[in-house]
Amino acid sequence: MAEEESERHGAVKITAVHLKLGPLSGVVKTALENAFTLAREGTILETAALIVEQTPIVARCPKCAADRTLPTMQSFICPQCQTPLSEIIHGRELEVVALEIEDLEVPCPES
Length: 111
Prior knowledge:
The protein has 111 residues and is an alpha+beta fold.
């Protein structure tokens, strides 16, 4: 996806890929980083950094009618009123949010 996007913008190099990663995404950060290192070899991403922003689990409490950040993924209970939570607002993310690219070098017109 990063390569396709860079081609659309005429980039010669991707210097960084920014991701959001939630604890409920099913992806382990270190495994993702290792896979990225291997997958980028021989591509426009060869020297790109992978910058991972880990997002917290946020769920809506039906009793408090408020979004609550959960301290762990083992307990889906409102930290304020102890009501069980089922509506997940954040925490499943695995998304590319930004690419840092270098533009194509345009030759100077001859004088």
